[in-house]
Amino acid sequence: MQPVAFDNPSAVAEALDGAGYLPDRGLATAAFLALRMHRPLFLEGDPGVGKTALAQALATVTGAALVRLQCYEGIDARQALYDWDFPRQMLHLRAAEGGGDRDTLEASLYDRRFLVARPILQALETSPSALLIDEIDRADDEFEAFLLEVLAENSVTIPELGTITAEVPPLVVITSNRTREVHDALKRRCLYHWVAHPDFAREVAIVRRRVPEVSDQLVQDVASAAARLRTFGLLKPPGIAETIDWTRALHVLGATRLDATTAADTLGAVLKYHEDIARVQRDLDALLGS
User: Fold this and answer.
1) How far is CA 60 from CA 20, 70, 185, in A?
2) Angle between helix 200-210 and helix 240-252 axes, rounded to 10 deg
3) Is residue 123 within 8 Å of residue 55, measured between CB atoms?
4) Sign of CA dihedral 209, 210, 214, 219
5) Cβ 248 vs Cβ 211: under 8 Å
6) pLDDT per residue of the chain (290 residues) written in tens, 0 to 9
7) Which residue stretches of 38-176 are H helix?
8) Which of 136, 142, 146, 163 has the largest CB neighbor count within 10 A?
9) CB-based burial label for 37 (10 Å; 0-12, 13-18, 19+)
């Protein structure tokens, strides 16, 4: 099955909007080009700006199965590609003991039924699929080199079984929080887009959509305060996810406006470091624009 096609960036933006994701023009254009040119989309930006959510929304609007590979320090090709189900192989070996010749028995251990597909192989074998490679900056250089090969060929070779090639290449979205620089070789294979924090109007629209029960005034107050927090030089500036959480927390407490008292009581919903909370508590007037 072929993924859903779009005629232009506006059609992508409209579809994403319908799926609950509100992109700006630049992001909708990058997504459209990735779909039309069959190129991976490399998204960089601060945590919480919607990089992962975009991949999820693209999977929804294209009718593709979302497969997520969460990167972390020490991840290797085996954990991303495939593994053999050793316990089942041992059970099979014990059950077959005494029957057949040794070579045939050993060969049967590497039957497809004992293969455990990890995210990349799952994406290649599923059509259509969207492969989200999340937080690539957490992985190391060796893993990046492995990804280069897979993205170039859209296939993997399993020595015991042969080469498996994607019937329809997956839509690949790679995200990075830029905790380290990713090599140019990987970026050159991709279309690149920096995902910035939304401007005030778009942040208000996003929060209204996600928390429709909250008053317009509270949403505007929180969006304004979140924008100011991003200028404070914090260890972890709030993303849109934190803005939404903060709005919900205030609503649960019955607040209709953001003032010094409600802000001080709920900073833990928007800030995640003690140092950041202490910094903001010392300057609540600046936070509230007063």
Assistant:
1) 10, 19, 29
2) 50
3) no
4) negative
5) yes
6) 556 789 999 999 999 999 999 999 999 999 999 999 999 999 999 999 999 999 999 999 999 999 999 999 999 988 999 888 777 767 777 776 655 556 566 667 777 777 888 999 999 999 899 999 999 999 998 899 888 888 888 888 888 888 888 888 999 999 999 999 999 999 999 999 999 999 999 999 999 999 999 999 999 999 999 999 999 999 999 999 999 999 999 999 999 999 999 999 999 999 999 999 999 999 998 899 86
7) 51-62, 77-80, 86-96, 102-108, 119-125, 141-153
8) 136
9) exposed
Location of structure tokens 């029957």: 99
Strands 155-158 and 162-165: antiparallel
Q: Which two tokens stand for residue 184?
A: 């140019």
Category of 249 on φ-ψ map: left (φ > 0), alpha (ψ -120 to 50) or beta? alpha
Residue 268 has a CB neighbour count (10 Å cut-off) of 12
Distance CA 202, CA 209 (A): 11
**DSSP at 232:** S
| Sheet strands (E) in the chain | 41-44, 65-70, 82-84, 115-117, 129-134, 155-158, 162-165, 171-176, 191-194
* This prediction's pTM: 0.87
